[in-house]
Amino acid sequence: MAHAETIYRHNYLEYASYVIKERAIPDVVDGLKPVQRRIIHTLFEMDDGKFHKVANVVGHSMRYHPHGDASIYEALVNMANFDLFIERQGNFGNALTGDRAAAGRYIECRIFPFAKRVLYNPELTEYVDSYDGRNREPVAFPAKIPVVLIQGAEGIAVGMSTKMLPHNAIEVLDAMKSVLKGESFMLFPDLPTGGILDVQEYGDGTGSISVRAKLDTSDPKRIVITELPYGVTSEAMIESIEAAARKGRLKVAAINDYTSDKANIEVCLARGTYSKDIEDALYAHTSCEQKISVNALVIKDNMPEIMPVSAIVRFHVRQLLDVLKAELELEKGHLFDTLHARTLERIFVEERIYKRIEQKRSADAVEAAVVSGFEPYGSELIRPLVHDDVERLLKIPIRRISLFDIEKNRAEIENIHEKLKDIEWKLSHLTDYALGYLDELKTLLGVKEHARRSSIKQFELVDAKSVAQRDLTLRYDPKTGYLGYDIKTGNAMAMVSLYDRLLLILKDGTYFVQDAPDKIFVGKGLQYCGYADKDELANIVFTTIYQDKDSKALFIKRCRITQFILDKKYALLPEGSYKLLKLSTFLYADLTAKYKPSRGIKILEETFHFSDFLIKGARSQGVRLSTKDIESLRIQRMEAAPPPENVPELFEDEPEVASSDVDEDGE
User: What is a single molecular function from GO for this protein (predicted)?
Assistant: First the structure.
């Protein structure tokens, strides 16, 4: 058992690490997941300037990606729809309508020149063996821009996940320029479907955003949705509106979908409803408003790490400088090699060193003759002559030697020297060179073509409860004991919405709070039904008149109900054999009690003022009023507390629940 547990733990950790690093989480260096990197690598290999069938690209990518063609196809389509690295031709689906792309055999793609500009450099890229050892694939491309911010990323691994929203490419490049200049910057998402963003809680890419659809309410009788929230298709939007209409939260006459390359959903309103009236309801009850949480998890230094947006930008600025410097040094080395070769050719031909080898009979003698011929010109060489140099010189054809243009050679050498000077300047002014490079990328992308799609605006989130219409009639049928807005018989209690909560006090003195019910059994003799809003309840005083069934003693209790747990029952009466006789919400009132005549009782009627009794908590004990047997009780409302020494002026009785006289059984 212990051995099996050890194997299980080891294998599970291996699996978890593999999924995190090789499947779901992008590498911060190039911002790509392994499948995306392998697709780009395949397109680099296949690039000949022409379009390739997607099915063909997928097949070639399977040499590097061991997880089947479906995952490669989906990743390729998603990347192509960003229009950043992959140029597409054919039906690649529609993110607005949710339509899928055509089969891989019908659509084509090729790599954009921009991808080569920012990713491709085999001499600076580290390669490893593919999964089967037959090919070599890159560990990570030396990316010069933060691809993970521009494209965004989403993936679920074992025990962790990443969710990064796309950002505007031009704004990201401008942010990198700000870092190079030592200036501050702020970056916010720019979603491909547009919409209105509230970024108050974005938290530099570690919080959340709220996104709304863009609504055209210029016509009072219809609303046109022109931009959708990120991740919501036109079909899903229409379904959410229809669901809200079925529940009575919106009054809609018809919905028409004209979405193609741009969102266009027409919502025709019912008679008596106007666009300004239901705008907030659309945000509250449909998919017109979404909240998206983000989690900027990436692989950095072979470990998963949460990096804020600003940290990713600064990381890539350092990487940009390092890569540009490495490329310049590499180009400098290549120019020196070319300069050395051109210098050797010039001396070899101009000084007629090739004549020295005409009478030589062995390879060693030929090489020695060439080496000795260059000895007087050692100071003109870039580096000492080596065996490979001699071999290269000996391979020059006679025709080329006879047609050798010395002036052209010297012009080439001068051109190389100019390039070397330019490289030296760039190396000594690396920051300025990086700024110019970023401007070139902006021009290559096209500022107009990559204009911001999402607008940023601060808005108040719409609470569904606050815009819900109280258009449902809550009824109580005392004959059956049922309460709800789906009941067609009984007395109308109030108008409610689906978001209202009600406080119900039953005949046995128990109370509870619950959501407005469609139909619920509360029993006969419901004592109270009202909105369970804590602010409103704080102003309501409940006065209960109850009796001890055994001793017939009469009690009064005044309290407020402000604390409760939803759907939990509480007791207003103390434990024991008590029954509720009267319940009142009058702040000031008189209670008149008539007693049953019996021997020794001289006073048969007595009046008590509500204001004479303290208002306590809902769990407190009541105050005993009398020990006499009750014949009837009557409550008369007063506008204010009576003066201590004056008889209070009485007002007309106000009907209330359970206001009938008490009979012999206390009913």
Answer: DNA topoisomerase type II (double strand cut, ATP-hydrolyzing) activity
